[in-house]
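User: Could you check the structure of this?
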Amino acid sequence: MLENIISEWIRCIDEFYEINRNGEYVYEVPNIDDQLKSDMLEFVEADKALITLIQEQASTSIIQSHSQAYYTSRKLTEILVQEDPVQEKSEGLDCIIKD
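Assistant: Sure, the predicted C-alpha coordinates are below.
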Protein backbone atom coordinates (compact mmCIF):
# COMPACT_ATOMS: atom_id res chain seq x y z
CA MET A 1 0.00 0.00 0.00
CA LEU A 2 2.66 2.56 1.04
CA GLU A 3 4.89 1.48 -1.85
CA ASN A 4 2.05 2.15 -4.32
CA ILE A 5 1.40 5.59 -2.84
CA ILE A 6 5.08 6.56 -3.04
CA SER A 7 5.38 5.19 -6.59
CA GLU A 8 2.34 7.20 -7.68
CA TRP A 9 3.69 10.29 -5.93
CA ILE A 10 7.06 9.96 -7.71
CA ARG A 11 5.31 9.40 -11.05
CA CYS A 12 3.31 12.61 -10.57
CA ILE A 13 6.36 14.62 -9.55
CA ASP A 14 8.27 13.35 -12.59
CA GLU A 15 5.32 14.20 -14.82
CA PHE A 16 5.07 17.66 -13.25
CA TYR A 17 8.70 18.42 -14.03
CA GLU A 18 8.27 17.02 -17.55
CA ILE A 19 5.26 19.27 -18.19
CA ASN A 20 6.95 22.29 -16.62
CA ARG A 21 10.50 21.85 -17.90
CA ASN A 22 10.41 25.38 -19.34
CA GLY A 23 10.44 26.75 -15.77
CA GLU A 24 7.02 28.41 -15.87
CA TYR A 25 5.52 25.86 -13.44
CA VAL A 26 1.97 25.43 -14.64
CA TYR A 27 0.65 23.21 -11.87
CA GLU A 28 -1.21 20.75 -14.07
CA VAL A 29 -0.76 17.01 -13.91
CA PRO A 30 -3.73 15.09 -15.33
CA ASN A 31 -5.42 12.10 -13.69
CA ILE A 32 -4.55 12.69 -10.04
CA ASP A 33 -6.75 13.20 -6.99
CA ASP A 34 -6.76 16.33 -4.85
CA GLN A 35 -4.66 14.81 -2.04
CA LEU A 36 -1.95 13.68 -4.44
CA LYS A 37 -2.01 17.09 -6.15
CA SER A 38 -1.64 18.81 -2.78
CA ASP A 39 1.27 16.53 -1.85
CA MET A 40 2.93 17.15 -5.20
CA LEU A 41 2.61 20.93 -4.92
CA GLU A 42 3.98 20.82 -1.37
CA PHE A 43 7.01 18.91 -2.65
CA VAL A 44 7.51 21.34 -5.54
CA GLU A 45 7.32 24.38 -3.25
CA ALA A 46 9.74 22.79 -0.77
CA ASP A 47 12.09 21.96 -3.64
CA LYS A 48 11.99 25.56 -4.90
CA ALA A 49 12.63 26.87 -1.37
CA LEU A 50 15.58 24.50 -0.96
CA ILE A 51 17.09 25.58 -4.27
CA THR A 52 16.71 29.24 -3.30
CA LEU A 53 18.32 28.60 0.10
CA ILE A 54 21.24 26.73 -1.48
CA GLN A 55 21.80 29.55 -3.98
CA GLU A 56 21.72 32.17 -1.21
CA GLN A 57 24.18 30.18 0.91
CA ALA A 58 26.50 29.69 -2.06
CA SER A 59 26.37 33.40 -2.83
CA THR A 60 27.10 34.30 0.80
CA SER A 61 29.94 31.80 0.94
CA ILE A 62 31.53 33.24 -2.20
CA ILE A 63 31.29 36.79 -0.84
CA GLN A 64 32.79 35.77 2.50
CA SER A 65 35.61 33.84 0.85
CA HIS A 66 36.33 36.68 -1.49
CA SER A 67 36.53 39.29 1.27
CA GLN A 68 38.93 37.08 3.26
CA ALA A 69 41.07 36.49 0.17
CA TYR A 70 41.15 40.24 -0.44
CA TYR A 71 42.20 40.92 3.17
CA THR A 72 44.90 38.24 3.03
CA SER A 73 46.19 39.55 -0.28
CA ARG A 74 46.40 43.11 1.08
CA LYS A 75 48.23 41.98 4.24
CA LEU A 76 50.65 39.86 2.20
CA THR A 77 51.35 42.82 -0.07
CA GLU A 78 52.07 45.02 2.95
CA ILE A 79 54.49 42.44 4.34
CA LEU A 80 56.30 42.04 1.04
CA VAL A 81 56.58 45.79 0.49
CA GLN A 82 58.07 46.48 3.91
CA GLU A 83 61.83 46.60 3.90
CA ASP A 84 63.38 45.60 7.17
CA PRO A 85 67.18 45.86 6.95
CA VAL A 86 67.63 43.86 10.16
CA GLN A 87 65.90 40.84 8.69
CA GLU A 88 67.45 40.93 5.24
CA LYS A 89 68.33 37.28 5.69
CA SER A 90 66.08 34.95 3.77
CA GLU A 91 62.77 34.11 5.35
CA GLY A 92 61.19 33.34 2.02
CA LEU A 93 60.03 36.94 1.69
CA ASP A 94 62.79 37.79 -0.73
CA CYS A 95 61.67 35.22 -3.29
CA ILE A 96 59.91 36.41 -6.41
CA ILE A 97 57.80 34.12 -8.55
CA LYS A 98 57.89 34.97 -12.24
CA ASP A 99 55.77 33.43 -14.95
